Amino acid sequence: MEDSEGSNPYMSILKRLASYDYISKNYGSSGIAGAFFIAIIIPTFLSILLMGKKKAKQRGVPVQVGGEPGLAMRNAKSARLVEVPWEGATTVAALFEQSCKKHSSYRCLGSRKLVSRDFVTASDGRKFEKLHLGEYQWESYGQVFDRTCNFASGLISLGHDVDTRAAIFAESRAEWLIAFQGCFRQNITVVTIYASLGDDALIYSLNETQVSTLICDAKQLKKVASVSSSLKTIKNVIYFEDDETATDSTNIDSWRVSSFSEVEKLGRNSPIQARLPVKEDIAVIMYTSGSTGLPKGVMITHGNIVATAAAVMTVIPKLGTSDVYLAYLPLAHVFELAAETVMLTAGACIGYGSALTLTDTSNKVMKGTKGDATVLKPTLMAAVPAILDRVRDGVMKKVEEKAGSAKKLFHIAFNRRLAAMEGSWFGAWGLEKQLWDIIIFKKVRAVLGGDIRFMLCGGAPLSGDTQRFINICMGAPIGQGYGLTETFAGAAFSEWDDPSVGRVGPPLPCCYIKLITWEEGGYRIVDKPMPRGEVVVGGCSITAGYFNNEEKTNEVYKVDETGMRWFYTGDIGRFHPDGCIEIIDRKKDIVKLQHGEYISLGKVEAALLSSNYVESIMVYADPFHNYCVALVVPSRPVLEKWAQENGIQHKDFSELCDKVESVNEIKQSLSKVAKAARLDKFELPAKIKLIPESWTPESGLVTAALKLKREPLKARYKNELEKLYQ
Q1: How far apart are the C-alpha atoms of 393 and 398, rounded to whole Å?
Q2: Residue 686, burial from CB neighbour count under 10 angstroms (0-12, 13-18, 19+)
Q3: Which residue ranges does UniProt annotate as crossing the membrane (predicted)?
């Protein structure tokens, strides 16, 4: 895997964890002997006396609802759908104002001040920026609310027409959230756009929604200026100040360009009465980085947002003002926006960081200085599965490089904890757990500050192995969520006391989840041992549809005879006996081969990703053939290490990927993991092509949540795919 600032920024997390020497070199023989003694002698008789079969907790229960026939579930805790976190909080504006008043003196938003920056030159001549960041500087809920009101007034004084839309096109930061909330004080719909979106999609999104005010950061200001001639409706541009703001990029004759602080000052000097929304009003048009074609704008109401926040509040235990949330994922993604809304609802504090400064050895952190997690010491954070998978792989790679007792000690500790979590050994809880944590896992946890008590995971399925690894090494339960932009992330969420893996929990209290038979794919609600079918979500979190796209809206949104909205996800799920749902497939990922076999591309990719050689993989199946093929982005350090050990000469990584020996080695590895995953013969790619370039959100080949964008990938590698079928 190439570790550069120009590639996927989330991989900087891996760099820190992969290089962390979490097993002490100074255990000594007595310490190791003591650990072995603990592993053997901790009271076995307690496991016999105290362990017993617990009755499975019912987390979801069947419910009779309208719409298309199927099997529907609701959350077992709530007979009625939850719409608001408390009475009166029916809109995002009301929720935010009430929470700010309730938690006025508590810390709200925190940012790190830039102390200095420097540039270092790599061996290949490339220059990398390094930052020295100071401590977090905090603003209280009361202060943030005042800034929000000032920005709202300043926006109107600036000349923004309240009947037009504003867009935010920037990396996550405190001002992003202040601008977002400020727009709602004047019932202005916000268009959110990924900072990594390409020029064509950016122009399309802004023109389609007829945005008149654009809010961006300095980096995006330059990008927007370069395409200004293509933007038809923008009149005002507001930029977040930082040291990189270029004055010449603000000289655009047709726009009024102002700094964020200027707009705040304008509003502070000329307050304007709030013009507040109602719950049916559109709060956000969120452009997805969808896997096909141009992005779609999902229309999200105020009621959708507060319903999801209210529902998640019931799931995370003891959520409150003592919690510290590390925010580094893009706020333009529904997962992060939902998470931060929950934090504001609870009165927790939000500290902003970035994937490039997250840990002490992240790409942009100056040597000898601290990363965001070390300084902030968060109790809560969110992650997408691709990040957690690489966390696990990086730490395990470092473990395998250890020799002798240190390596053995880690595996003993891990296996004891794993056995305890899976209910087969009581001794690895209690005192023994604390001792293992002190000896082994405390060193790993320090990478993320050492105080993480709960992690939120979403965006894609999380493997069971990775979930267990994070549970043990980070010492925290994972709330694995399932949702879409179209449900404002609100669909299902695994509960903190659910030790199972591979599932996404019961329906959130704000919605129902229904399975509907899909005959063509062979998924039926009468299947044994568990009912299966397409996942359809209905209730308070279901959004209003796609902006300016009635045809697509009518295709996937339905309204039943009671007036309830349902969204047809295209995902395939199955209900477990306790009412929890597991996502097992996706309709669009299923291809019928020439001889009638069905191949699930997503399932095969998930299995093959477990190969150490694979950083990314896209499986492709042509229905006119009886086999599949694959594009594989190899893990650079793993493949280069293999080449060195086997005397494979090459000038650069691209040439190494073209070597027949490399292709054969990776094919053998894929064959092994396919066998372990019990894939059928036709599911193993018959031919592969090694791709030397990483797939990143910036390249447009994966989404912000690192999911494959199949159509752009197929278009980019059309010639390579055709050659694989020759």
Answers
A1: 9
A2: middle
A3: 27-50
Alpha helices (H) in 354-475, listed in sequence order:
372-376, 385-401, 405-421, 430-436, 442-445, 464-473
If you average pLDDT over residues 669-691, what whole number do you get? 92
Q: Which region, left, alpha or beta, applies to residue 439 given φ > 0 means left and ψ of -120 to 50 means alpha?
A: alpha
Residue among 116, 136, 142, 117 at smallest CA distance from 128: 117
- Residue range(s) occupied by CATH 3.40.50.980 in the chain: 92-104+115-277
Fold for domain 92-104+115-277?
Rossmann fold (3.40.50)
631-654 burial, b if ≥16 CB within 10 A, otherwise e?
A: bbbbbbebbbebbeeeebebeebe
Assign domain 593-724 to its CATH superfamily: ANL, C-terminal domain (3.30.300.30)
DSSP symbol at 462? P
Phi and psi torsions of 376, nearest 5°: -75, -35
Q: How far apart are CA 259 and CA 401, in angstroms?
A: 51
pLDDT in tens, 336-378: 999 999 999 999 999 999 988 998 878 899 989 999 999 999 9
Check residue 438 and report its DSSP letter.
I
Neighbours of 298 (CB within 10 A): 26
Residue 529: cis peptide before it, omega within 30 degrees of 0: yes
- Mean pLDDT to the nearest integer, 383-390: 80
Q: CATH 3.30.300.30 in the chain, residues?
A: 593-724
Provide the β-strand partners of residue 350: 109, 325
Cβ-Cβ contacts under 8 Å for 195 (sequence gap 6 or more): 169, 170, 171, 217, 219, 220, 330, 332
Q: Report the amino acid identity of residue 257.
A: V
